């Protein structure tokens, strides 16, 4: 298992449609995010017969310190008089390699997720 923790700064441009008669709207977003590696760990489990050994390494030396990703978002909003809710699907695709050049496998990172936001006006 390989785990990385980055401090990210996103820049995202969003477009939100005008609410319809049911006071619902859609939103679309696209942008980039840049990150700096704060912490990393690697965990190995080695099994020999009935014995398991777990090895944990921290702050791996061959990972790229900086990363750059493209991000995209599609959201659905339902508004009431003074509040609302927004449901989003978010995807991110890495533009920079996970490992430094010639110091590890050629891997590209990506992630997807679902977001929920509560809106108060």
Give a structural overview:
With 121 residues, the chain is an all-beta fold. It has one domain. 0% of the residues lie in helices and 70% in strands. It has no helices and six strands. Strands 1, 2, 3, 4, 5 and 6 form a six-stranded antiparallel β-sheet that branches. A hairpin with a 3-residue loop joins strand 4 and strand 5. It starts with a strand and ends with a strand. The mean pLDDT is 91.
Quick rundown:
With 121 residues, the chain is mainly β.
Order of helices and strands: EEEEEE
Determine the structural class based on helices, strands and strand pairing: mainly beta
| Number of helices in the DSSP assignment | 0
Number of domains: 1
Total beta strands: 6
Q: What portion of residues is helical?
A: under 10%
- Coarse shape: elongated
Tell me, rounded to a whole number, the average pLDDT: 91
Largest sheet: 6 strands, antiparallel
Span from first to last CA?
43 Å
Strand content: over 45%
Give the radius of gyration. Answer: 20 Å
Low-confidence stretches: none
């Amino acid at each position: 298992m390989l785990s990385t923790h980055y401090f990210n700064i996103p820049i995202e441009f969003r477009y939100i449609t005008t609410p319809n008669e049911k006071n619902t709207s859609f939103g679309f977003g696209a942008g980039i995010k840049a990150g700096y590696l704060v912490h990393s760990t690697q965990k190995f489990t080695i099994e020999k017969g009935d014995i398991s050994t777990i090895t944990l390494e921290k702050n791996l030396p061959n990972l790229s310190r900086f990363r750059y990703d493209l991000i995209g978002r599609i959201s659905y909003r339902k508004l009431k008089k003074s509040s609302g809710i927004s449901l989003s699907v978010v995807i991110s695709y890495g533009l920079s390699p996970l490992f430094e050049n010639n110091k590890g496998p050629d891997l590209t990172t990506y992630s997807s997720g679902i977001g929920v936001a509560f809106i108060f006006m």
